[in-house]
Amino acid sequence: MLQIFVQIPVASAVYRGVSTQPELRNCERNQNFSQFLSVGVFTGHEVIQYIQSDLTKKITLPDLAKLTGLSHSYLLRLIKKETGSSLVNLVDSYRMEEGKYLLLNSDYSIMQIAELTGFNYQYHFALRFKKYTGMTPTTFRLSGGVKT
């Protein structure tokens, strides 16, 4: 069986044309991923798609390893090989990119966006967002994503 490895762009870029409602986009992502669960063979591409499938859920290495049947160390190497990032940084970058997209393209409150991107607290989301973008979520939204 030929397995093709591709580096996937961030979650919001992959699904940007699908739906502007995060709940629907997550549903569509889960439907796209279900095909891999039935096959039982995972490449880096499928693991990354699973991570992107629902950014609201807690994603842990043991859960990913159990789901894929791969060892923790092999799974981490596979993710690093495919993306150049650690699992934590990969999940964070997808969540932050989704947050950026929602801030610019929705009227959701920052608290709602925090929840939709997997954060339990707005404060935690704002701290991570500022570290990632150099701006607070409010400043990012008001500036249209342009750093002043």
What does this structure look like?
With 148 residues, the chain is an all-alpha fold. The protein has a single domain, classed as Arc Repressor Mutant, subunit A (Orthogonal Bundle). The protein contains nine helices and no strands. The chain has helices at residues 11-14, 22-39, 44-53, 61-68, 72-83, 87-105, 110-116, 122-133, 137-143. The longest helix is centred in the middle third of the chain and has 19 residues, at 87-105. The protein is elongated. The chain starts with 10 loop residues before the first helix and ends in a 5-residue tail after the last helix.
Span from first to last CA? 50 Å
Q: How many alpha or pi helices?
A: 9
What is the second-level CATH architecture? Orthogonal Bundle
Largest sheet: none
Give the helix/strand class.
Answer: mainly alpha
User: What's the pLDDT, averaged over the residues?
Assistant: 77
Quaternary organization: single chain
Q: Considering the protein shown, what is the CATH homologous superfamily?
A: Homeodomain-like
Number of domains: 1
Order of helices and strands: HHHHHHHHH
Radius of gyration: 16 Å
CATH fold type? Arc Repressor Mutant, subunit A
Uncertain spans:
1-21, 23-40
Task: Estimate the helix proportion, in percent.
Answer: 55-70%
